[in-house]
Structure formats: C-alpha cells, structure tokens
Amino acid sequence: MPDVFVADDDKQKSENSNQKAESNQKVRVGEKVVMRPRDERDYSEVLRNTPTTTNPLAAFVVRPKNLKFETQDSEEKILLLLRKHPITNVPWMIWAGIALLAPLGLSIVPLFSFMPERFQFITVVFWYVLVLGFILEQFLNWYFNVYVITDERILDFDFYSLIYKRVSEMRLDKIEDVTFEMSGVVRNIFNFGTVFIQSAGEAREFEFEDTPLPQKVVKLLNELQMEEQQEAIEGRVR
Amino acid sequence: MELIELLPIDPAWLWLGLKLVYLFGVGLYVVFAIVVYRQAVMMLAALNGALELPIKLVALTHLGIAVLMFLLVVVVL
After folding, report:
1. Which residues lie below 8 Å from residue A212, measured CB to CB, with a gap of 6+?
2. Is the distance from CB of A71 to CB of A146 less than 8 angstroms?
3. How far apart are the CA of A183 and the nearest CA of chain B, in angstroms?
4. Nearest-5° Cα angle at A60, A175 to A162
5. Taking burial as the number of CB atoms within 10 A of a residue's CB, which of A33, A87, A155, B47 is the most buried?
C-alpha cells in the first residue's frame, strides 16, 4: 500500500520552516506583535546587483561604509551616496591647468618686467598659491555636495559658498513622482543625468544634478517607495 | 624700470607702497585660507567619510602655505 503520509510530512516541514522564518521576522512592541523591516537586498534589485566600492572618490556608492551624517538616526541605513559625475570637474581642471602654465608665458610676454626681481618672484609664487586655493575649493565643493538615499528618506547636502550650508530632506513616503533626464552628447556617452523627485510637501522638487546612472537611482527610489507602502500595509516597525 | 625712474616720486616709496598692497592681498588670502579650513571642518561635521583626516590635513597645509606666503612677503619684499 503506498505511503500517503510522505507528502503530508514534506508539506508539514515546509509549513514549519515558513512559520519559523515568519516568527523570526516578528517582534513584540508592547502588547502588539509586528513584523521587522526586511533587509534592503531582499526587496531591491539595484542594491542586490550593484557591487559595492571602497573608492572614496566614487560618485555612485552603494551601501557606503564608514559614512555618517549629522542628522542620521541610530538605526537608519545609508543605501546610496551620489555625487556629480567626475566628468563635471573637467572644465575647472582645464582652467587650473592653464593657470598653472600661465607663468611660463611671462618669458614670452614679460608683463612684470618693470618690477624688481623680488616682486616678480613673489608674484609668481602668489599666483601658484591662488591656483592651489582654487583647486582645493573646487574639490571640496564637488566632494561634499552629495545626495544621500537612506532606507527612510533622501537628503541633499548643498554647500553654496564658503560658509553657507543647506541640507534638504524628504521622507520616502512623501515622494510622489520620480523622473530622470539625460540630455546632450556628453551625458549620454558617460551615462549621467539629472533625477527629479517630486513631493507634495514644502520642498516640492529635489534635483539630483548630473548623477551617474540616473536610471538606477530612479529604479531604487521606486523600489524603496514600494517597500514603504508594503511596510505600512503589514505594520512593520523599525 | 626706466619709466619708473621718470616718475616724480622716489622709487623706494613706490616699492614700499606696492609691498603694502601685496601684504594686504596676501593677508586677505590668509583669511580666505582660514575660512576654507573652517568650511572643510563644517562639511566633515555634516558628512564624514573615509577622507576625513586627509581633507583636514590638506586644508591645514593650505592654511600653512598661506601663512608662509605672508611671511615670505614680509621678509623678501
């Protein structure tokens, strides 16, 4: 006689493992039992398929290590760090290169020949110091003007001048519309563009300017929005 | 240089005036270098990552170079 209970045993085992997995996802908060949030790699194809990098000068960094910002919550995870594509630095680099070579032109066009030699020497040295300051300022502006996507919100860090800082943020559940734009030959060749994020709040639109892989950014934001909606339905807590 | 000797003022006073202009300009640059250092510190407080120490060192070095420049102007000119 065939053993008709084998299938039920397998079915029982799989049900038990599902229940165990589900119970691992549950946590008691007061008198309620709610679901834990899922790991970001479970619901995001972008985070699963994009390799991480340890390059500190990268412009598209998935799950950056050793990175913190001042308003970050203790349990908040940074999922993506974005900067302007490095190619956007080329114009000022070209100007800096020209400026560094400019003193060589004094041998052809002696602009300061009316000055004593000590003044000419100081002028050239001061010129190089000015160029160094320009390069440092441009680098700091590129390095620190970043866009951050966490598992709870998106942030835009802007340092407009030497002493003016502005940090804008938008919660993921406030995002209404996400689009991106890649216009021009250079942007299409190097695959960078601007991501526009629309919300209903006071900060109506965010612009992630000249970021690499804007299509992946849009996809990630859509995945995070769906996960936020799922969390709200299932009553998951952080 | 010959044109300068034709001027009605003593060239020594002219170069002293120019030295004061240079001192003022480099002095302003020292203030700028201090602000750049403060900017770097403020930015690192807002968002710190792997390059925290190198950026602080570069900003401090830039400030040191600016101060040395000022001293160079005082001594050389």
Report:
1. A59, A60, A82, A85, A190, A191, A192
2. no
3. 30
4. 85
5. B47
The whole-chain average pLDDT of chain A stands at 84
Query: Which residue of A65, A126, A162 is in closest CB contact with B69?
Result: A126
Q: Divide the 77 residues of chain B into consecutive groups of 10 and give the mean pLDDT of each group.
A: 66 88 95 93 85 93 96 91
Spatial distance between the Cα atoms of B36 and A186, rounded to a whole number of angstroms: 32
Contact state of A56 with B35 under an 8 Å Cβ cutoff: no
Q: Which residues of A touch B46 (CB under 8 A)?
A: 69-70, 144, 157, 165, 167
Residue A73 dihedral angles phi and psi, to the nearest 5° = -75, 160
Taking the C-alpha atoms of residue A48 and residue A125, their distance in angstroms, rounded to an integer, is 51
Distance from CA of B36 to the nearest CA of A (A): 7
CA distance A62 to A67: 11
d(Cα A19, Cα A183) in Å, to the nearest integer?
50
Determine whether the interchain pair A119/B18 forms a contact, defined as Cβ–Cβ distance below 8 Å.
yes
Task: Dig out the tokens for B64 from the structure.
Answer: 């040191």
Q: What is the pTM of this model?
A: 0.82
Diameter of chain A measured on Cα atoms? 114
Identity (one letter) of the amino acid at A150?
A: T
Locate A9 and state its tokens. 């045993």
